[in-house]
């Protein structure tokens, strides 16, 4: 059984990875569908505004803080190598770090940056919008599942 500060780290890890999974799940299940239903220029403008707002401290603290916490949990797990929950903690950390945080950096952020360079009503932005929605959403589904699976594995490590 995980105890003491290690227990607290893991519970906070469940909370962080679960919160991020929830945000990304909202985008996968209804936000992107709603934006895609708008005329392209409006969808582009709305997503550009969302991407700027997402960089504010509230979300970044949870998103980046969870990545740091997952790294700490992985290191502590390697050092302590507990009798129970080791596999769950290491795989849960890897899922969030690579499948959620890494995918965000490698796949979603470059698409966001490309969209940010466009003026919403231009033919270029309007032509790119369906591709953006499709590709961005696919990668978002992956990071949603990775963050949720990380949270589940952390819970299993506590059981």
TrEMBL record:
Transmembrane segments annotated in the record for this chain: 6-31, 52-81, 87-109
Swiss-Prot/TrEMBL keywords: Membrane, Transmembrane, Transmembrane helix
Any single Pfam family the record assigns to this protein: Anthrone_oxy
Domain of life: Bacteria
Protein name: DUF1772 domain-containing protein
Organism: Streptomyces dioscori
